Amino acid sequence: MKAIWNNTVIAESTDTVVVEGNHYFPPESLKQEFVSDSPLNTVCPYKGTASYYDIVVDGKKNADAVWYYPSTRPGYEKIAGRVAFWKGVSVVD
Fold it and tell me: If 3 and its partner were Cys, which of 11, 36, 55, 84 is the partner (CB 3.0–4.6 Å)?
């Protein structure tokens, strides 16, 4: 699977976990040169507290487009630390 934004591969892996229709990529598959920490945190009543990254490619920023759960609530441990995408990021096979 590949996560692509602004014609750039942001993450790539053959080891994704699908939860609620979202592919969660291993953290090491995320290309760090294209992301920076976001101050945003949100709470999912099922999975726990999510943290976010901004994507920056060729000077264009996609704020909060990557999310991850540093730790999860019981039942969602398989996605802890993994990253998922939204806000116009294409996830393709």
Answer: 11
What domains are defined for the chain?
Answer: 2-92 (2.170.150.40)
Question: How many C-beta atoms surround the C-beta of residue 54 within 10 A?
Answer: 18
pTM of the model: 0.95
CA distance 30 to 56: 13
Tell me the pLDDT tens digit for each residue of 17-49: 999 999 999 999 999 999 999 999 999 999 999
Please name which of 24, 9, 18, 7 lies closest in space to residue 66, comparing C-alpha atoms: 24
Residue corresponding to tokens 């920076």: 36
